[in-house]
C-alpha cells in the first residue's frame, strides 16, 4: 500500500495519502493492505465491517461513536467531497475534547484513520458525496452515541456558511460536558 502517512494535531489520528498511478485510461491505487497498514501506522486491529453512505450537499453526519464496542474507522470518499472530523473522547488523553479535521474527496484519494475512543462525523461540501469506511467492530445501535456537532467546548471550525441538515439523533446529541466518554486511552 504505497502511501504517505501525514500526522494531524492529534497524534493517533492519521491522514493516509495513497500513491495513485494514472494515465489517459484513468487511475489505480491500492486502497487497503493489512500488512502495509500495520507497518506504516502501527495499528494492529482487524477490520470487520465495510460501510457505504451517500449524502446530499449540506448533510452533516455525526459526531458518532459507540460507548461500548468502540470502533476504529478507516474512512474515504469515492465521489464528491466532505470535511471529515475526529474528536478525542478519551478522558485520560492529553488531547481529550480536541478535534482534527481534513478534506476528503474523490480527487485527493486521502483516507483518515479514526481510532477507537473518538467521535466521528463529516459534512458534505459537494452536490453529493459517497463515503466508504472500514470499522474495527460491528455496529451496536444500543451503544451508539452522538456528540453535538456545534459544541463550543470542542470548537470545530466547520468550513460551512449554512445550517447543516441533521438526522434526528444528531439534533439531540449531547454536549461534551454531559456526554458518555471513554475513561482510558485504550477503550475496550
Give a brief description.
It contains 2 helices and 13 strands, in the order ββββαβββββββββα.
CATH class: Mainly Beta
Give the strand order, joined by hyphens, for the main sheet: 1-2-10-7-12-5
State the major sheet: 6 strands, antiparallel
The whole-angstrom Rg is 16 Å
| Low-pLDDT sequence parts | none
Work out the helix count: 2
Q: Which descriptor suits the 3D outline?
A: globular
Order of SSEs: EEEEHEEEEEEEEEH
Given the helix and strand composition, which structural class is it? mainly beta
In the CATH hierarchy, the third-tier topology is known as: Jelly Rolls
Q: Using DSSP, what is the number of strands?
A: 13
Helix percent band:
under 10%
- Assembly state: single chain
Domain module count: 1
User: CATH architecture, please?
Assistant: Sandwich
Average pLDDT figure: 95
What would you give as the CATH superfamily? Jelly Rolls
Strand content: 35-45%
User: Roughly how many Å apart are the termini?
Assistant: 28 Å
Written overview of the protein:
With 188 residues, the protein is mainly beta. It has one domain: Jelly Rolls. 6% of the residues lie in helices and 40% in strands. The chain has 2 helices and 13 strands. The strands form 3 sheets. It has a 6-stranded antiparallel beta sheet with strand order 1-2-10-7-12-5, with no helix packed on it. Strands 9-8-11-6-13 form a 5-stranded antiparallel beta sheet, with no helix packed on it. Strands 3-4 form a two-stranded antiparallel ribbon. Strand 1 and strand 2 form a beta hairpin. The longest helix is centred in the first third of the chain and has 8 residues. It is globular and about 50 Å long.
